[in-house]
Specification:
26% strand; 203 residues; eight-stranded mixed sheet; Aminopeptidase; alpha+beta
């Protein structure tokens, strides 16, 4: 399953979004942070990955601290055992039913991470996003704080943010994407080692 996740990441971020720095000859997007401490969250249709997120500990090296700290422009970023970094979040663009409507696969991915948050004892996440995502995340019920002014990184406009979970985040996410219920078929507390095993949920 991890191999399918790495190939999904390569197809989305390299082949589709043209992140050439991540291109690999074997078609698998893997970096130094894909170790036993990260959490992989994937939605699957059979054996095919259709959406994905990766969560990294902020108490150890992560993207914001060790790849692009300059995005913070000298400011500190929240970190600690109750905050993770949310990275590589994507839903398969080739599975999107309508470009003008909210993507339910993306919605399920956001909802999965949202519902994992209190189960893992977390309060929020840091992330690096396009500025337009601040409005979208706020609509999904997150309390979003920009950590610096937007800047260009590798040709893209990016802003580092801290997004804090609250008790209304899940319901707000469901409203935005028109979802009901829970995305899980495996709960975090049922995993033998949630920090090292991929969490999979049904589409």
């Amino acid at each position: 399953m991890l191999d399918a996740m790495y190939r999904f990441r390569h197809r989305v971020f390299v082949d589709t979004m043209k992140w050439e720095a991540c291109r690999k000859p074997d078609g698998r997007d893997i970096d130094q942070f894909d170790g036993p401490d990260c959490i992989h969250v994937a939605a699957c249709d059979g054996e095919a990955v259709i959406s994905y997120s990766r969560l990294l500990l902020t108490t150890k090296p992560h993207l914001q601290s060790h790849v692009y700290p300059e995005l913070l422009q000298g400011r500190p970023a929240p970190s600690g055992p109750y905050i993770m970094e949310w990275t590589r979040c994507a839903a398969a663009p080739w599975r999107r039913p309508n470009s003008l409507a909210a993507d339910p696969n993306a919605g399920r991915q956001f909802l999965a991470v949202t519902e994992m948050t209190p189960s893992l004892g977390l309060v929020g996440y840091i992330a690096q996003v396009h500025p337009t995502m601040i409005t979208k995340l706020t609509a999904m019920g997150w309390d979003v704080e920009p950590l610096a002014l937007p800047t260009r990184y590798d040709g893209q406009l990016v802003v580092p943010i801290y997004m804090e979970w609250n008790s209304g985040t899940g319901d707000a996410t469901r409203r935005v994407f028109g979802l009901r219920g829970t995305p899980y078929d495996v709960l975090p507390d049922a995993m033998p080692a949630p920090w090292s095993e991929p969490l999979r949920y049904a589409s």
